[in-house]
C-alpha cells in the first residue's frame, strides 16, 4: 500500500513530531494507524495515511452513514434524528451570519445532499461537490439534485461565492494547503467559510483517548483543536471570527466510542459521558466534541 508519512509538521513545518498513540480502524479494516502530534504547534495528525489512490477502499461500506443514508441500528437512527434537527439550525445560522436570503453557496463534501437541498429550498443558489460517486448517485435519486465531483472546484470563478460550508469534511482533505488557497480564491471578499470539525481537545476525546470514535483513522487525516484550526486559517490569510459548539455530536461519538471499547451497554455509558461533556462546554467551549468555525478573508 502506498502511504504518506510526514517527516515534519504539516502546519508549522517543525521537526519535533512524536507519536501520541495508536488507533484502530474500527469501521472497515481493523488496521492500526499512529496518531502523531507536533511538539511546537500542537497540531495532531494521522501518520502513514493511504494516498489518494488507496484511501477509497476505507470508505467502501453500506454502513458509512454520510455516504449511504443507512438507518440500521440505534446509532444510525440517532444520527438521522439529530441531522433533521441540525439542518434547520444550519440554514438559520448561514442566513444569520450573512444577512442574506438568496446568496450563493458551495457545500463541499456534501455527502448525500441533505444540507445542500435544504439551502436550495431556502432560496439559495447552491453548488454541491462530493467525492463519492455513490453518494452523488443517492442525492440524484433522492432529491433529483445534481452534485459535482472534486474537479469542479477548479471551475468555480474567483470571488464567486458568498459562503462555503464544510460539515465534517476538512479532516478528510489530503492537500490542506492547496484547499485553503482555493477557499480564499473562490470566496467573495465579504464571504465566509463555515467549517465544522471534531475537536480532539474535547471532554470526550480526553476521556476515550485512542478509542475516541472521531479519530476515525485513516479516513480522518487531521485532528483539529480551536488553536490549530485558527493557525491553519491565519496561514492562508483568513481570520477566525466566531465559534459555535455542536452539543449533539458528543452523544453520537461517545456512544460509538463505547462500542469500540467493547462496552456491554454503549448507549447508556456513552450518554453519561456525553452529558458530562455537555455540562463542561458551558464553562469551557473547547470541551465540545465538535465545533463550527466561521472564517473571513483577511483584507
Nearest-integer average pLDDT: 92
Uncertain residue segments: none
The Rg value, from CA coordinates, equals: 18 Å
Helicity, in percent?
25-40%
H and E string: EEEEEHHEHEHEHEHEHEHHE
Structural class: alpha/beta
N- and C-termini, Cα separation: 43 Å
Spatial order of strands in the largest sheet: 7-6-8-9-12-11
Bin the strand percentage: 15-25%
By DSSP (H or I, 4+ residues per run), the number of helices equals: 9
Indicate the overall shape.
globular
Please count the beta strands (DSSP E, at least 2 residues each). 12
Reported for the largest beta sheet, the result is: 6 strands, mixed
Can you walk me through this structure?
It is a single chain. By secondary structure, this protein is of the alpha/beta class. It has 9 helices and 12 strands. The protein has helices at residues 65-68, 74-98, 114-121, 133-143, 176-186, 203-208, 226-235, 249-261, 266-280, and strands at residues 3-4, 17-24, 32-38, 44-47, 49-50, 104-108, 125-129, 161-167, 187-198, 222-223, 238-245, 290-297. The strands form 3 sheets. It has a 6-stranded mixed beta sheet, with helices on both faces. A 4-stranded antiparallel beta sheet has the order 2-3-4-10, with no helix packed on it. Strands 1-5 form a two-stranded antiparallel ribbon. β3 and β4 form a beta hairpin. The longest helix has 25 residues, at 74-98.
Amino acid at each position: 500500500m502506498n502511504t504518506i508519512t510526514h517527516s515534519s509538521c504539516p502546519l508549522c513545518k517543525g521537526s519535533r513530531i512524536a507519536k501520541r498513540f495508536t488507533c484502530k480502524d474500527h469501521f472497515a479494516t481493523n488496521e492500526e494507524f499512529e496518531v502523531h502530534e507536533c511538539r511546537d504547534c500542537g497540531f495532531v495528525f494521522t501518520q502513514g495515511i493511504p494516498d489518494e489512490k488507496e484511501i477509497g477502499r476505507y470508505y467502501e461500506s453500506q454502513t458509512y452513514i454520510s455516504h449511504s443514508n443507512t438507518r440500521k441500528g440505534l446509532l444510525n437512527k440517532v444520527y438521522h434524528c439529530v441531522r433533521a434537527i441540525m439542518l434547520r439550525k444550519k440554514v438559520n445560522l448561514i442566513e444569520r451570519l450573512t444577512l442574506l436570503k438568496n446568496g450563493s453557496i458551495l457545500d463541499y463534501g456534501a455527502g448525500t445532499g441533505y444540507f445542500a437541498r435544504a439551502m436550495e429550498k431556502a432560496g439559495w443558489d447552491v453548488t454541491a461537490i462530493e467525492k463519492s460517486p455513490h453518494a452523488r448517485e443517492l442525492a440524484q435519486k433522492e432529491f433529483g439534485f445534481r452534485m459535482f465531483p472534486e474537479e469542479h472546484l477548479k471551475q468555480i470563478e474567483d470571488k464567486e461565492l458568498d459562503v462555503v460550508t464544510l460539515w465534517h469534511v476538512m479532516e478528510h482533505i489530503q492537500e490542506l494547503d492547496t484547499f485553503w488557497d482555493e477557499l480564499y480564491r473562490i470566496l467573495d471578499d465579504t464571504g465566509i467559510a463555515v467549517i465544522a470539525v471534531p475537536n480532539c481537545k474535547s471532554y470526550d476525546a480526553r476521556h476515550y483517548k485512542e478509542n475516541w470514535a472521531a479519530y476515525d483513522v485513516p479516513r480522518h487525516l487531521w485532528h483539529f483543536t480551536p488553536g490549530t484550526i485558527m493557525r491553519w486559517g491565519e496561514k492562508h490569510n483568513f481570520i477566525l471570527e466566531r465559534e459555535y459548539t455542536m452539543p449533539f455530536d458528543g452523544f453520537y461519538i461517545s456512544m460509538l466510542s463505547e462500542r469500540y471499547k467493547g462496552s456491554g451497554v454503549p448507549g447508556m455509558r456513552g450518554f453519561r459521558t456525553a452529558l458530562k461533556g455537555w455540562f463542561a462546554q458551558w464553562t469551557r467551549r473547547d470541551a465540545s466534541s465538535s465545533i463550527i468555525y466561521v472564517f473571513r478573508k483577511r483584507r
